[in-house]
C-alpha cells in the first residue's frame, strides 16, 4: 500500500543515494564501452 505523503527526509536521502550509485554505475559502464570501442578504432560517427 502506497501513501500519498511526501517521502521522509531519511527515505529521500536513501533514494538520492541509490540514484547517485546508479548514475555512477551507468557512467562507469558507458566509459568502459567507450574505451573498448575507441580501442577498436571506431569513431562515434561509425557507430551510428
UniProtKB/TrEMBL annotation:
Highest rank taxon of the organism: Bacteria
Protein name: Uncharacterized protein
Source species: Desulfonema magnum
Amino acid at each position: 500500500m502506497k501513501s500519498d505523503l511526501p517521502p521522509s527526509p531519511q527515505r529521500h536521502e536513501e533514494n538520492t543515494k541509490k540514484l547517485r550509485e546508479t548514475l555512477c554505475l551507468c557512467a562507469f559502464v558507458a566509459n568502459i564501452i567507450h574505451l573498448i570501442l575507441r580501442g577498436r578504432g571506431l569513431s562515434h560517427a561509425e557507430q551510428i
